[in-house]
Amino acid sequence: MAGLYLHIPFCKQACHYCDFHFSTSLKHQEGMVAAMKAELILRKEELTDPIQTIYLGGGTPSLLTPAQLEELFETIQIHYQLSSAIEFTLEANPDDIDESLLIACKEIGVNRLSLGIQSFREQDLKFMNRAHNQQQAEQALNLVAEHFENYSVDLIYGVPDMPLDIWEQNLQIAFDAKVPHLSCYALTVEPDTALDRFIQKGVIAPVDEALAKAHYDLLLDMTSEAGYVNYEFSNFGKSGFQSQNNTAYWEGVPYLGIGPGAHSLVGHVRSWNISNNPLYIKGLQAGKRPHESEKLSLNDRYNEYIMTGLRTAKGVSLSRISEEFGAVYRQYAESLLPELQAKNWIFLDGDDLHVPRSSKFVSDAVAAELFKLL
User: Fold this and answer.
1) Phi, psi angles (nearest 5°) of residue 286
2) Residue 57: which residues within 8 A CB-CB, separation 6 or more?
3) CA dist 113 to 288, 316, 321, Å?
4) Which helix (DSSP H) or strand (DSSP E) does residue 157 occupy?
């Protein structure tokens, strides 16, 4: 099993919290599609297993035309072996959604949509500098539900001036619409974003961690009551609707990242493309992929498994640590357990380590306690 991630580096405008690579200039869009097709062909020998998941992220993939989306998928079909049960996800923003786009996506082969709503409240959307409004969010959700059985909605919590009852309303709107999958993320302040600058200048108050935790606790309660499985820290799916792409990523399945700024993991080598649209296009026009790479050390791989595993419902397997990293790493992890169990940060279920519900909000900090440093 393997995956393809295609990074579409264009947006109508910059969200205040976003630190992903993108451009608000669409003048290189045609050249970008051609370059991404060239990279797909150039790298076709890197994956030997059938492609199980294709994920178009960004940026804003829904800014591409149906013809451009079709060009990319046809290139994949020609040069890669595809699983018969492939999951093909397209990220889309509500302001791009209309019936013609959804019909075209299904005809191309997209069978899952990820809808970037973030909030159903106008005040929050303006705060984030989203390109859509509340009405477009609700209309897009209704349209997507009419055309797709398998889809996901993104929501952001921990937004300043979002009281618990507003966050509850956001979730309830999704529940009432019978959304099969939710991805819910805490608002984080990334360096050099507009949000970071506004906080530094005192234009807005710093993000309130206590508020974000209260939102997350409510999220766990409400999704559980509504029949969702919290299969990863930020992801909640009804039965049969857990994202194959997300699951493969957390389990270390090999994948290629195509496009500027995209990351790849094949074997023990991680690589990432240059985060510059013109230079990326220029490089692929010359038949070269502008990128950097690193070979992950045993420590790197162990730490990454701990980090991703503790965020999932599956947890971290002590047997897998022994098999993949050696007895020394298992002994190291086991030596730290008494202290972490005393803090109620970890519990052992048979062979598997899990973070208890009371400590889920600090899962990453718990994982860091188990990291092995050189």
Assistant:
1) -90, 5
2) 5, 6, 7, 8, 91, 114
3) 32, 30, 35
4) strand 151-157
Is the entire prediction scored with pTM above 0.85? Answer: yes
* Residue corresponding to tokens 């996506």: 105
Helix (H) or strand (E) holding 223: helix 209-225
Residues of the chain by 3-state class (helix, strand, coil), percent to 5: 45, 20, 35
- Asked if 83 and 100 count as a contact pair (C-beta separation under 8 A), the reply is no
**N- to C-terminal Cα separation, the chain:** 32
Instruction: Give the position of tokens 């099993």.
Output: 1
Residue 204 corresponds to which tokens in the numbers above? 């807005």
The C-alpha angle with vertex 233 and arms to 198 and 311, in degrees rounded to 5, equals 115
Indicate the DSSP class of residue 362.
Answer: G
Contact between 168 and 222 under an 8 Å Cβ cutoff? The reply is yes
pLDDT digits (tens, 9 = 90+) for 25-38: 888 899 999 999 99
Q: Rounded to whole angstroms, how far apart are CA atoms 243 and 235?
A: 9
Contacts of 363 (CB under 8 A, 6+ apart): 233, 310, 311, 355
Element (H, E) at 7: strand 2-8
| DSSP codes, 73-96 | HHHHHHHS-EEEEEEEEEEE-GGG
Element (H, E) at 367: helix 363-370
pLDDT tens per residue, range 249-302: 999 999 999 999 999 999 999 999 999 999 999 999 999 999 999 999 999 999
